[in-house]
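During the reporting period the student researcher (J.K.) took over the structure-prediction task from the postdoctoral fellow and processed the backlog of single-chain submissions. One of the processed entries is reproduced below for the supervisory committee.
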Amino acid sequence: MEAGETRRSSGRSGAVAITVNLLFINQFFWPDTAATGQLLTDVARAMAPGSGLVTVLCGRPDYGTVDDSPAPPAVIFQCGSSRFSRGKVRRVISYASFVGGAAWKAMWSPRADVVVTLTTPPLLSLLGTALKMLRRSRHYVWEMDVYPDIATDLGVFRKGGPADRIVGLLADWSRRRADGIIALGEDMKERLVARGIPGERIHVCENWADGDQIQPKRMPAGPLKIHYSGNFGLAHDLDTICGAIQALRGNDRFRFSFAGGGPRLRKLDVLALDPANHVAVLPYCSRSELGASLGAAHLGLVTQLPGTAGSVVPSKTYGIMAAGRPLLYIGPQNATPARIIDRFRCGWQVDPGNVRGLVSLLDRLASQPEELEAVGGRARAAFEEHYNRPAGVARIQEVLGVSAHGSAANKVTTGSGCEDADDSLRAAGVHAESEIAGNTAR
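J.K. obtained the following structure tokens:
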């Protein structure tokens, strides 16, 4: 097939379908359970057979727990020799190793029609821009975190300093050359517009959860249970919930549980040493067990530091809604979780630092089981209409020009791939998936 020629296939009905080869690039993918990897895995699973080749360039799995579900229908290449690490130096090494390996593989593989780069590691979009310029692929940036904003928000970069300016210059240069930007909420879109990115090129596609895996369960009996699930990173507010735990010390009407990891978990480990605090710190929960874990509590906790509204959007919001549990959001009022709570009346927002207000709210909810049931029901109803996996994946597919059934939309221009190359990559993908499955078993 010659360069610039469109690949078409005819079904039994005689209809002509345009096939599109997709390339996703992100450090996390199946079987890793990082939130970005899970979302990307859902998109890969949704692609219909025969709609085109799906290739994923990812790192080696080492985030925490592993996804024990079958491999998605994609060609998976694990790039780089260093596994992900949360240590600063080793993390930079793992980033560099992955980007180098992914760049080599992307440049020497058959051309992709559409390239999607996520934001792990930062500035990964530069690779997508290079593929757009050198190989005439369409390029979309799926923003999971807005850089350098998140780094300045957390004090990693000095605002206006050399690192902030250089990273911002490179990131915005890539964004302006992309065919589209996917933002996780209106607050993130506002951040990008403030950086000078044209609003008409930004598509708001909120995240989702799997409503089949996470089903509502009956509210548990006994004390009011507040549960946090996932990574407790630098962007999360910890002091407010810890203040409430200490204020409620010795009160048998409350239980607090935290399942996951992250750099800020040590303070909770200390609190858990005192039985009077009623705090349990648990390991990461696998995706298949998440529904039961969330359903064992009355409230799902989400926290966010005030200055990070729009630079990050907490994805754990949607799993809690899928479980039919009210949201307890400790974070800024202009952030996506607070907007969801206000729109659907599916939880409560508390300003960071307002320990007294949080304690008062929990004290009231402990004696209002009917209100918890009603608010949890509204959370599940809103989830089913807006945030279930099929709806969320369809939003991404629409932006990329691929329909929910995997056929291509007219706005996608296909190019120089060939059937023989596709077949060889599919064969390579089977081998790659076998290696990944072996890593999971170990």
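The committee noted the following: The domain at 224-387 is CATH 3.40.50.2000 (Rossmann fold).
J.K. will present the remaining backlog at the next meeting.
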